[in-house]
Amino acid sequence: MSIEKVSIVKADKKVIKDQFFTVLSVELGNTTLKSIITTSNVKNNKSFQLVKLVKLTRDIRNPYDGETVFGHTIWNKSLSKEAIVEAIRDLILESLSEVEMTVDELDFVVRSTGVVAVLSSDEELNYIIQALSSACLSAGVKPSQMTAPFTLDNIPEHIRKYSFFNNIEFDGSVVGISSLQLSGVVSNEMESELVTAGMKLASKSSSIEYRNPVVSVDMGTTLAGQIVDDSRPYAEVACNFIGLAGGIMDIVLRGCGVIENIHSTIDVDFNQFDDELNVYKLHKDTIKLHENIDINEVPADVEEYGCVSVYQQKRINSKVKLIGCRINDEKKLIMEFKRILDENPKIISEQIDDFYAYLIKRLIDKSNEMNLITPHSTLAITGRAGITTNKIRYIEEYLSDEFDDILLVEDALAQGATMMARCMNSLGTPINPMGGSKGRMCIMQERIKHNKKI
Q1: Domain that holds residue 233
Q2: What CA–CA distance (Å, rounded) separates 264 from 283?
Q3: What CATH number corresponds to the domain at position 296?
Q4: Which of 96, 129, 189, 406 has its C-alpha lying 20 to 30 A from 452's C-alpha?
Q5: Is residue 15 assigned to a domain?
Q6: What are 228's strand-pairing partners?
Q7: How many domains does the chain have?
């Protein structure tokens, strides 16, 4: 079994040539705001990061009198359209200034949000998406830089000759995964789709082939991800992951008094654990903590699971399974973690790492129990609760018998934004494909034949 961590290589904008496609990804999360500009070579799928700016969501200004509060983060931060527009606009302009770029030098802009996970209606979801669009427009982004082209002439001129638009137009699928199953059952569907796509792009900078069948797990504040089979020409989503992830330990550390109520684990400077580690006790304590965590198929009678909204009416006609993670007893979970810290305060970082690695193991165990994972699948993980500090050690320990390859990816959502934009512009790479099944040829010809029959 091989396990590998991959980051986007940082580069100066001088690296950009005609065959490069440059995308700005702006993300509004429950914990952070990010503006990341990446550029990818459509000839070989190598990607580079030009700039990454991160701000804290809690620092978005509070709504002024007269502004409509349309939603909150899972930490109850009130959000108005005007406040979001100001924060996102300023972040976009700052990131462009950082690398001395103008909006016109961007080929595409993709907006995404993890905050939608806690919104209770389509109306609220549309409101936040409109706020993100308004922020981009306020920063000078053109509508054409955020929408799929209608003709080849709508694609940026420098990249046009690399597009397969006249062979196969964008049909909603991203990296060869069917879009027909995106029914809006859970509000983090787009986040999961982007994360999976980003992992496929990131894998091109690693030694691991991350093509279908795959499993993606996004361990941000909330949980996202997919289980994808190896159907051709379009793979199908078997399952979506939802619920709490990094937010669990935010709640626990607040309850233990380690951090203030507005803070999260990203505010903690964890010291390296230098003492001899009692791995047996560490695992035993982790299992005890997990008695207070539910990881199950999401019931058909709940409107939310682990702070993520579930639209059950839409679920009736969906074949996609939902596996969720939530706290079943917050008080007992906090008390148990406090007991562990009272015995050894220095163990905090290792205990958190082991806790989250075991959480991922439980997700995989539940998926296997439901027969959702196709044999020979590759696992990829992203998010602060999945790839930071010493988690790779415990992930390898828990999952070495489950997968041949495991990939840990930084900023998969931003790389997924690049892939979505490329798919919208029909910028595939047949000689080095990301869609289709591992070890097999590009699926473009199969897709062309399939679409002609429709």
Answers
A1: 189-413
A2: 24
A3: 3.30.420
A4: 189
A5: no
A6: 214, 237
A7: 1
Q: Residue 285 domain-assigned?
A: yes
Reduced to 3 states, what is the DSSP secondary structure of residue 174? strand
Q: What is the end-to-end Cα distance of the chain in Å, rounded? A: 41
Distance CA 191, CA 206 (A): 23
Mean pLDDT of 130-152: 95
Longest dimension (CA), the chain: 66
Please say whether the dihedral angle defined by the alpha carbons of residues 143, 149, 150 and 152, taken in this order, is positive or negative: positive
pLDDT tens track for 278-326: 999 999 999 999 999 999 999 999 989 998 888 888 888 889 999 999 9
Is 219 part of any domain? yes
**Cβ(443)–Cβ(200) under 8 Å?**
no
**Torsions phi, psi for 127 (to 5 deg):** -65, -45
- pLDDT averaged over the chain? 92
Under 8 Å CB-to-CB from 150, ≥6 apart: which residues? Answer: none
- When pLDDT is averaged across residues 352-375 and rounded to a whole number, the result is 98
**Other Cβ atoms within 10 Å of 210 Cβ, number:** 25
* Contact present, 195 and 416 (Cβ < 8 Å): yes
**Three-class secondary structure of residue 163 per DSSP:** coil
Q: Is 187 left (phi over 0), alpha (psi -120 to 50) or beta?
A: alpha
Are 378 and 215 spatial neighbours (Cβ–Cβ below 8 Å)? yes
* Six token digits for residue 389: 């500090």
pLDDT in tens, 164-189: 999 888 888 899 898 776 667 887 88
Q: What is the DSSP letter of 229?
A: -
Residue 409 lies in a domain: yes
